[in-house]
Structures are given as structure tokens and as C-alpha cells.
């Protein structure tokens, strides 16, 4: 008998749903304090996960989910930058 390997799941900081890790976008705070998207999911730093929906980014902004997860304030310009980068990820 072969064991069924479970796929890792993470909670979206916007909607709060538990979703398979491969379907989420990782937002990363690097050791230097820079906030960016981690498309590989393997970069070094503190991460938070978001669904690829615009509504989840808006919810994360409203309820400060990213700020709590990354343990740092997030400037409005960074939210706009993340929104643009997420559009590119969804198009791929």
C-alpha cells in the first residue's frame, strides 16, 4: 500500500480560506525589509499567502492581514505595486 501524500495548505490573509499552497501567491518580506511577490515560493524571508483574486488583496488591505503576517507596516504604494504584479501573475 502506498501512502497518499498530503499537499501543503496555507491560509489566505485576505479571505481566510485554507487553500492548497500551489494555488496561492506568496508575499515576502526580505531580511532587508523589502516587500515583494515570491513567485518561486522559496526565497528567504517572512511570507504571507494571498489568493490570486483582487478581492483578497483588498480584504488584506482593509483588515491589515499582510501587516500582521509580515509584522511590518505596509505602505499604500506597496499595495498598488502588489496589485500590478498580481495582474501579471494571473495573466501567465
Report on this model:
The protein is α+β, with helices and mostly antiparallel strands. Helix content is 34%, strand content 22%. The protein has one domain (9-91): YlxR-like (Hypothetical Cytosolic Protein, Chain: A, 2-Layer Sandwich). The strands form two sheets. It has a three-stranded antiparallel β-sheet. A hairpin with a 5-residue loop joins strand 3 (25-29) and strand 4 (35-38). It is globular, with a radius of gyration of 14 Å. 22% of the residues are buried. The mean pLDDT is 90.
SSE diagram, text form:
Blueprint: E1 9-11, E2 18-20, E3 25-29, E4 35-38, E5 46-50, H1 54-62, H2 65-70, H3 76-91
Features:
92 residues, alpha+beta, Hypothetical Cytosolic Protein, Chain: A, three-stranded antiparallel sheet, two-stranded antiparallel ribbon, 3 helices, globular
Adjacency order of strands in the biggest sheet: 4-3-5
Described by its quaternary structure, the protein is: single chain
Poorly predicted parts: none
Q: Could you tell me the radius of gyration in angstroms?
A: 14 Å
Q: In angstroms, what separates the terminal alpha carbons?
A: 38 Å
Task: Please summarize the sheet with the most strands.
Answer: 3 strands, antiparallel
| Overall CATH architecture | 2-Layer Sandwich
CATH superfamily: YlxR-like
Question: Could you tell me the number of beta strands?
Answer: 5
* Overall body shape: globular
Query: Helical content, roughly?
Result: 25-40%
Structural class comes to alpha+beta
Task: Sketch the topology as an H/E string, one letter per element.
Answer: EEEEEHHH
Amino acid at each position: 500500500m502506498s501512502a497518499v501524500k498530503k499537499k501543503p495548505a496555507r491560509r489566505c490573509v485576505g479571505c481566510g480560506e485554507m487553500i492548497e499552497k500551489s494555488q496561492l501567491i506568496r508575499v515576502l518580506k526580505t531580511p532587508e525589509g523589502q516587500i515583494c511577490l515570491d513567485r518561486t515560493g522559496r526565497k528567504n524571508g517572512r511570507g504571507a499567502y494571498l489568493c490570486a483574486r483582487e478581492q483578497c488583496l483588498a480584504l488584506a488591505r482593509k483588515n491589515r492581514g499582510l501587516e500582521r503576517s509580515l509584522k511590518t507596516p505596509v505602505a499604500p504604494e506597496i499595495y498598488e505595486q502588489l496589485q500590478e504584479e498580481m495582474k501579471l501573475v494571473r495573466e501567465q
